[in-house]
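agent> Task received from the user: take the single chain below, predict its 3D structure, and emit structure tokens. No templates, no multimer pairing.
agent> Plan: (1) validate residues, (2) run structure prediction, (3) serialize to tokens, (4) report one or two observations.
agent> Step 1 OK, no nonstandard residues flagged.
tool_call: predict_structure(input=
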Amino acid sequence: MTTTYCDELSGIASFPQTQAQGYYQGGHEVVFQSTVQNASQLAGSIIVLAQPSAGLVYLGMRVTVSATLGSTTLAISDSVSGNVYAAAAAYTASSVVAPTSAQLAYGPLLSQANLICTTAAATLPSSGSFVIHTYWMQAT
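)
tool_result: status=success, residues=140
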């Protein structure tokens, strides 16, 4: 029977042995909570959600809405590398936004970034709110 290793552990079978990076194996989770009050923000508005630091690796997000955002779409990205963490989508109910394999392959942030939400397609409602939790790995 053949033994294979996941990509993160591929170096442990080599000589000299290399260990996995701490954010991929044995890291800690970091969570950013970003609460936004709906106030009829126009389509094209940019809302700064968080400032993840260098070295963090994206894991995914959850969007919780107090009421439907209608046809307004939200896109989540960062201001430094242009990484897109959630493509523009209309959130009519709360949802978990699982990362794609491409997003997981972004690797660690090289510098601190502004995590931003860009609205499009319609004006946000005049009342209610939404909360975006983003999840990241941090080396130990």
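agent> Step 4: summary for the user.
The first strand starts at residue 28 and ends at 37.
agent> Done.
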